[in-house]
Design goal:
The complex is a heterodimer. Chain A has a 21-stranded antiparallel β-sheet that branches. The N terminus of chain A is likely disordered. Chain A contains eight helices and 25 strands. Chain B is mainly beta. Chain B has one domain: monomeric porin ompg (Porin). Chain B contains four helices and 17 strands. In chain B, strand 15 and strand 16 form a beta hairpin. The longest helix of chain B has 12 residues. Chain B starts with a helix and ends in a 9-residue tail after the last strand. The chains are: A alpha+beta, B mainly beta. Chains A and B meet through strand 12, strand 14 and strand 15 of A and strand 3 and strand 4 of B. Chain A: InterPro entries: OMPP1/FadL/TodX.
Chain lengths: 538, 350
């Protein structure tokens, strides 16, 4: 019986690791496209931002005359905080008080370090906490032969990025300790065609590298493990090393308990070539009004990589002792209990979807000195509702979990449901034409969360949020244009105890990870971004 | 009109014109005809055959020869760049036998039909470091489909770097020699790090380094060419792959010896034809497992014939199409290729 609990816990850990993959996927979607987009609340489908028209509306390349290049940089500061507190009505797991036994109770988690996925290396934590992490965001060029209606463009950019790293003793380490999710588009040949004075169309193919890496400490604040801990107390395992019921039953090979670490999960998967396509259209019936729309296809990916679980000595020792006893050996054979191996490792393959994205919007120069942009974005997050993971060998935790969830688990595969829903976002921006060379910008985007109620967790810690931005565009010279922005986002969520079985349920049957069982969780995320891009002719 | 263009191009001899045409035609010739490196299975042999298109092949050899009609050296001039795109499709279909025999008894027997489609888009970039020294890199983007198993894979293949050195200036009428070396990385998805039942690889899984020489001689209107090379494949360790009931921990792919030869013939100023054959010998590959056992795949030969057609589509662009046929079990059943130079203003050599 405890075996199913163990399997369940570990299954939950895997679930959470992959849930974070999808949660972040939405959270970071189009968060950082271009300084102009960030300053205008991402309402740039009808007013594409320089060479990043490659990304927001390929038809916009037609507006770039001659041969131009562009390069962008960002300095970002992101802080992920969470507070775990014992609710007023108290909390206990099989009679063990959370406040007394859970080291995470009434403590705070804070992640400010970044993490990256480096191809060929894997998940890399940035060396130390810095006020801002700087990185290039995009680079590209476009070529429009004189007099031609065709414009060719190509570029590279970070399509999706999210990453953080927590300290080894951070209380939040049980729901993703280190994580990096990124999709880097490295090759994006795109062509735009100016049909006539009013219409432009464009299309391109994007080649991307998609990767996800995570580590997480595992623990099992579950009633079943609470039973185990109580039995160990009754056996006097702490005081006497002897097994009182040996050889019939042995439980003192290692200490277990609801808040005892059982191991560390490491996971890395990637696909080096994930193709997708985009197309867009721009309609400019008058010189003051533009309508635009773009669609990007997303991709059904087959990611491959490795998963490893390092069990603690206590955990593996406990199961070794159980299996060495008569009743334990019989139970193991019947219930596929863990054998107590110190480490499990497997090559894995998984099917994941990069969601399709559609946006449409208008840009209207309502006054000679003012342009207003609005956009609506749709992201098909429902496509990520399931994730299928295949393992190249039988793993103990899968064998154990299969008993609890036979329809989802086989000894070599997992099918996970993630609480996803489609997302619509609205963005608004205003551009003030101060002079012929200077534009000032301000905007906001209302970003909706893709996780359904009851599935909240700390793995992708961004919920409904407003992205605010200000910025400017400046004609530095006849050939050179500069865009800058400062944007910020704050997102918070209260997850009362027992409200989400992705984090703090305390019932016996929940199958999803709940390392903070019985605790109130309050999480807050801040992001501040400063960006600049330079576009010039060559 | 042809003659007019011819003069504008500064080529005053019929030979020069024919040479220029053939230069680009052979771009596609040597694709996918390469060393079989590990011989561990037909599958891996194919991996080897399809991935090493960066080897010095007939295309480079002929390019060098024909450029020599105008220059002392046939490689890129110092400071010049060139960028090329090529596409290659190959198909392999067969029945695979998975057999384990212990003490004369068959322990494991499995016969699997296989049908694999490989699509490779690759970009190669060359830079003339000196007049007689060119360095280049090749980045393949691989898509694979196994229609029997309903598997597919997309991924960057093994990126490689090649250096070509021409020790002596070319003298028209004599044989031209170029020495080359290639370092292949393992950026592709390794066949030793995947779930073999559910995934496909896009790379070799190990580093390798090759060195060799290529020669060519012009006998107007025919150009003869040939090359030979030796490839050392680095042993891969610390693997953890399920192979039946065992775990594969180490692969020693052995070495590879390959040679190729052929000729090109100019039919007109706008069309030329080439034909070549490539033979590859692969040393035995040793697989080591976690239970201390070893399995050795015996050495083998593979061969492939390739024909290509070069067509001038503009004054500066020649498009090559090619078709190849496998001669042995380890080679693809057939392949089709296409290649052309990419000329974005200011980026590529015209």
């Amino acid at each position: 019986m405890r075996a199913t609990g163990a399997g369940k816990r570990l299954l939950g850990a895997i679930v959470l690791a992959f849930v974070s993959m999808g949660a972040f996927g939405q959270a970071e979607f189009q968060l950082l496209v271009h300084p102009k987009a960030s300053a205008l609340g991402n309402a740039v489908t009808a007013d594409p931002p320089g060479i990043m028209a490659l990304r927001r509306n390929p038809a916009g390349l037609s507006r770039l005359e001659g041969r131009q290049w562009e390069f962008g940089l960002v300095a970002a500061r992101t802080v992920f905080e969470a507070e775990f507190s014992v609710p007023d009505e108290g909390c206990d797991i099989f009679g063990m008080e959370c406040a007394e036994h859970d080291p995470a109770a009434n403590s705070k988690s804070r992640a400010t370090r970044g993490a990256l996925f480096v191809p060929g290396v894997g998940l890399v934590k940035l060396p130390k906490e810095a006020p801002f992490d700087g990185a290039p965001t995009h680079a590209g060029f476009s070529v429009q032969p004189p007099g031609s209606k065709l414009t060719f463009g190509n570029g590279a950019w970070m399509e999706v990025y999210a990453g953080f790293s927590k300290d080894d003793d951070d209380p939040g380490r049980y729901q993703i300790k280190d994580v990096a999710l990124q999709r880097f588009t490295y090759f994006a040949p795109t062509v735009a065609y100016q049909v006539n004075d009013n219409w432009s169309i464009g299309a391109g193919i994007n080649f991307s590298h998609h990767a996800f890496g995570a580590t997480q400490d595992l623990r099992t604040p579950n009633m079943l493990v609470g039973v185990g801990a109580t039995l160990q107390d009754a056996f006097g395992c702490d005081e006497e090393k002897n097994e009182p019921l040996a050889p019939w039953l042995a439980l003192c090979g290692g200490k277990i308990g609801p808040w005892q670490d059982i191991g560390v999960l490491e996971l890395e998967v990637e696909e080096t070539l994930s193709p997708s396509y985009r197309f867009g259209v721009l309609w400019e019936p008058t010189d003051w009004f533009t309508w635009g729309a773009q669609y990007s296809s997303g991709d059904d990916m087959s990611l491959s990589g490795e998963l490893g679980i390092d069990y603690t000595e206590d955990w593996s020792g406990f199961w070794q002792s159980v299996n060495s006893s008569v009743l334990g050996a019989i139970g193991s054979a019947i219930l596929s209990l863990p054998s107590g191996i110190p480490k499990e490792q497997a090559n894995i393959s998984l099917q994941e979807t990069h969601p399709q994205h559609f946006s449409t919007g208008i840009s209207a120069r309502v006054l000679p000195w003012l342009t207003i942009n609005t956009d609506v974005d749709y992201v098909d997050m429902n496509s990520q509702e399931f994730i299928d993971i295949k393992f190249d060998r039988e793993l103990e935790f899968l064998n154990a979990a299969r008993i609890l969830a036979p329809e989802q688990v086989t000894p070599t595969s997992l099918r996970l449901e993630r609480n996803k829903k489609d997302v619509w976002s609205l963005g608004y921006g205003a551009e003030f034409h101060v002079s012929s060379r200077l534009d000032l910008r301000a905007g906001v985007q209302h970003r909706n969360n893709a996780i359904r109620k009851g599935g909240e967790n700390l793995s992708g810690p961004l919920w409904d949020a407003n992205l605010y931005g200000v910025g400017l565009g400046y004609e530095w010279s006849q050939n050179t244009h500069i865009d800058m922005h400062a944007s910020w986002l704050k997102s918070s969520k209260k997850i009362p105890a027992d409200s989400s079985c992705s984090i703090n349920c305390d019932n016996i049957t929940n199958i999803v990870d709940n390392p903070y069982a019985g605790l109130d969780v309050y999480a807050e995320t801040h992001a501040q971004l400063l960006g600049i891009s330079v576009r010039s002719r060559f | 009109m042809r003659h007019k263009k011819h003069k504008e191009a500064g080529l005053n001899q019929p030979l020069g014109c024919a040479l220029i045409l053939i230069i680009a035609m052979v771009f596609a010739m040597a694709t996918s005809v390469h060393a079989q490196e590990n011989g561990a299975s037909v599958d891996e042999a194919r991996e080897a055959l399809s991935k090493q298109e960066d080897d010095e092949g007939s295309e480079e050899q002929l390019e060098e020869v024909f450029q020599a009609a105008e220059q002392n050296y046939s490689l890129l001039e110092a400071g010049r760049h060139s960028l090329n795109y090529s596409f290659n499709y190959s198909y392999s279909g067969d029945q695979r036998l998975d057999l384990e025999v212990v003490n004369g008894q068959v322990r494991n027997l499995d016969v699997t039909p296989s049908a694999t489609h490989n699509f490779t888009n690759s970009f190669s970039y060359d830079f003339g470091f000196k007049d007689n020294l060119t360095i280049g890199t090749r980045i393949p983007l691989v898509s694979k489909f196994d229609t029997q198993e309903e598997l597919n894979a997309n991924g960057v293949g093994d990126i490689s770097v090649t250096t070509r050195w021409q020790p002596n200036p070319h003298v028209p009428g004599t044989m031209s020699t170029t020495l080359f070396s290639t370092l292949s990385t393992k950026t592709g998805v390794s066949p030793f790090e995947i779930d073999v039942n559910r995934q496909l690889s896009t790379g070799s899984g190990y580093y390798s380094i090759a060195g060799g020489a290529s020669v060519s001689k012009v006998l107007d209107p025919v150009v003869l060419f040939g090359s030979g090379s030796l490839r050392y494949n680095h042993t891969v360790k610390d693997l953890n792959q399920v192979r039946g009931a065992r775990l594969l921990e180490e692969v020693d792919p052995g070495f590879t010896l390959s040679s190729s030869g052929g000729f090109s013939y100019s039919l007109s100023y706008d069309i030329s034809l080439s034909m070549s054959v490539q033979l590859t010998y692969s040393d035995e590959t040793v697989l080591r497992f976690n239970d201390g056992t070893e399995a050795a795949a015996s050495d083998q030969m593979s061969g492939l014939i390739n024909m290509s057609l070069g067509t001038r589509v503009s004054d500066t662009t020649i498009v090559n199409t090619s078709v190849g046929f496998g001669l042995t079990r380890g080679a693809p059943d057939f392949s089709v290729g296409f290649s052309m130079p990419i000329n974005i203003s200011g980026l590529s050599e015209s």
